[in-house]
Design brief:
The chain is of the alpha+beta class. The protein has two domains: 161 residues, 2-Layer Sandwich (Uridine Diphospho-n-acetylenolpyruvylglucosamine Reductase, domain 3); 107 residues, Enolase-like, domain 1 (2-Layer Sandwich), CATH 3.30.390. 36% of the residues lie in helices and 25% in strands. It contains twelve helices and 14 strands. The strands form four sheets. Strands 4-5-10-6-7 form a five-stranded antiparallel β-sheet. Strands 11-12-13-14 form a four-stranded antiparallel β-sheet. The protein has a three-stranded parallel β-sheet with strand order 1-3-2, with helices on one face. Helix 10 packs antiparallel against helix 11 and helix 11 runs antiparallel to helix 12. The longest helix has 22 residues. It binds flavin-adenine dinucleotide. The site of flavin-adenine dinucleotide (FAD) has 29 residues, from strand 2, helix 7, helix 8 and strand 10.
């Protein structure tokens, strides 16, 4: 099918884009890499009156160190993130998450901002953003604001962004020295969206767990933290039994995972537990745990 008719705008600066979006009606859509939006247009699941293409706005394409973190412009492609030596060296969990997104052809065009704004519950970037507590910079005609990851993802394919808001940057804090991490998922085929996945950061003091953060994705309308499982770990001597019991808590803690032709709700719940246990084990080893 072909998309329904729409007006097309391709501003060359962020200021121009923001002022255009402020003037157009609420049925306008921002276009970035088009890897999610164009199929929706072609299937007429989205019928915007106008598209504002960010493709020419070079000022939104960058990766730089920023005050203890890495700041990435929204228009930076997933492939650029994957190839960044800075990301690989300083934030390997983001590098690993990027490599799990689709295939190189899609990562060549898909942008980090597009993935975060699209907010697919099985997507890697929303999960890694929640895991690391990333900040999102947003511009609109009324000014700039920053939204934390915990408030950004609202529900299925829905974020705190309004129709005239441009996500301009995501800033990931670096992990403290000694913090172990893991980011894994289960897919039916290489490059598919995850049936379920887990991101973990963990720190140990002696043999005791002094910090734990667990984020699951593909199992709810947004990525979710397993706060009860995190609490069950902190202050305890790490052991295989403790990891198994925390994974069981994480599995029991999630709501009602989606059931579709790829996996039943119960299978996704089971996978959430398996992914949590594997991710905790891998992250703990990176934090120096010897078992
Ligand atoms: C076959 C296939 C497999 C895929 N597999 C995966 C996968 O395994 N994991 C995964 O995470 N993704 C996957 N994707 C999606 C891919 O990562 C997309 O690139 C991404 O979701 C959207 O990025 P984009 O730049 O293409 O955004 P677009 O498609 O252009 O836009 C997506 C949405 O975000 C909005 N938007 C874009 N940029 C901004 C901005 N700066 N500010 C505000 N709103 C904005 C648009 O209005 C639109 O609503 C897959 C896609 C395909 C086609």
């Amino acid at each position: 099918m072909k998309p329904a008719p729409f007006d097309y705008h391709d501003p060359e600066t962020l200021d121009e884009a923001v002022s255009l979006l402020g003037r157009l009606d609420d049925d306008v859509k921002i276009l970035a890499g088009g890897q999610s939006l164009i199929p929706l247009l072609n299937m007429r699941l989205a019928r915007p009156t106008a598209l504002v293409d960010l493709g020419k706005i070079a000022e939104l394409d960058y990766i730089r160190e920023d005050n203890g973190g890495i700041a990435i412009g929204a228009l930076t492609t997933q492939r650029t993130v994957e190839r960044s030596q800075l990301v690989k060296d300083r934030l390997p969990v983001l590098y690993e998450a990027t490599r799990l997104i689709a295939h190189p052809q899609i990562r060549n065009r898909g942008t980090i901002g597009g993935s975060l704004a699209h907010a697919d519950p099985a997507a890697e970037y929303p999960a890694v953003a929640l895991l690391l507590d990333a900040d999102f910079k947003v511009r609109s005609a009324s000014g700039e604001r920053t939204i934390g990851a915990a408030d950004f993802f609202v529900t299925y394919l829905t974020t705190a962004l309004g129709p005239a808001d441009v996500l301009t940057e995501v800033r990931f804090p670096l992990l403290a020295e000694g913090v172990g991490w893991s980011f894994i998922e289960m897919t039916r085929r290489h490059g598919d969206f995850a049936l379920a996945g887990a991101g973990v950061t963990i720190a140990l003091s002696g043999g005791e767990c002094s910090h734990a953060r667990i984020v699951l994705f593909g199992v709810d309308a947004t990525p979710v933290r397993s706060k009860a499982a995190e609490q069950a770990l902190v202050g305890q001597e790490l052991s295989e039994e403790l990891i198994a019991s925390a994974a069981q808590t994480a599995r029991d803690e999630i709501g009602e995972p989606l059931s579709d032709n790829h996996a039943s709700s119960e299978f996704r719940r089971h996978l959430a537990g398996v992914m949590t246990a594997r991710a905790l084990t891998e992250a703990a080893r990176r934090a120096g745990w010897v078992n």
